Structures
1.
Amino acid sequence: MRRAIFPGSFDPLTNGHLDIIKRSLPLFDEIVIAVLNNPEKEPMFSVEERCAIIDEVLPGVSNGDCQLVVDSFSGLTADFAQTKEAVAIIRGIRAVGDYEYELRMAMMNRRLQPEIETVFLTAAEEYSFVSSSLMKQVFELGGRVTGLVPTLVEERMRTKFNK
Ligand code: PNS
């Protein structure tokens, strides 16, 4: 059984995240979408809301033989991956600008848990500029994020901001 975790803030889930999840499906038997509970950040959605959104969106992803599970965690990603007996940590790379930060994280995670590999997957070109923070900023300033986040996410953002 090859389990991977896909850790992130997912505040909110974007179509870029979904693209990476879809690309990971053939590689693993189970993928745990691991939502970080980071008390230092003021999120748009609580961890519970983020997990609920992902839980609602995932049934729309045709996942073949791969199980998709949603969970949240605090503390180190490497420790969470080890607790889950994961063989890999999945991270998406949008453009070359992501690489340096991701490489540092991968090296640190390898030092913490040498048995667990970081697997980098490249997002589709159309999502190469999509980040949760950009989606939040554009939405809050009245811009359209249609097609860049799941419809459900857009609805929840609208409800949250009464737009
Ligand atoms: O979606 P993000 O914000 O790019 O995800 C970043 C995340 C959650 C993967 C990273 O911040 C993380 O792993 N945080 C948990 C704490 C940790 O393990 N820090 C050391 C990383 S080497």
Note: Helices lie at 15-24, 47-57, 77-83, 96-112, 132-140, 151-161.
2.
Amino acid sequence: MNDCIFCKIINKDIPASIIYEDQEFLVFEDIKPIDKVHLLIIPKIHIESLIACNETNQEMLGKMLLLGGKLANQLGLKGYRTMINSGAEGGQEVFHIHFHVYGGSDTLVKI
Ligand code: 5GP
Ligand code: ZN
């Protein structure tokens, strides 16, 4: 049995605030937002992280990045940040690959 929390959200076994869904991707609000808008974009296939990706995932990764920009734009963000934490040492806590897309606050803390 797959114990992945994001797979459970994909299967609607646990609720999430879903912003967008198609055959390949699901986009929902982060449960602990760090900005006014904070989305998580995930592929519906379970891939652990960017570390597990290779050339065969190139198209999927490109689509995710463009989808994030499109949704940020639709939500009225003039600018936004994207973040991919990869591996425990890279700050990843949920091991189903995801893009964070966030923005909307007036003050930007530079990192
Ligand atoms: P990571 O640190 O792995 O890059 O980010 C995982 C993100 O998933 C965190 O920002 C966390 O708030 C979010 N998250 C963890 N569990 C859930 C959940 O059950 N629902 C939603 N919507 N977000 C979650
Ligand atoms: Zn998963």
Note: The helical segments are 5-10, 58-74.
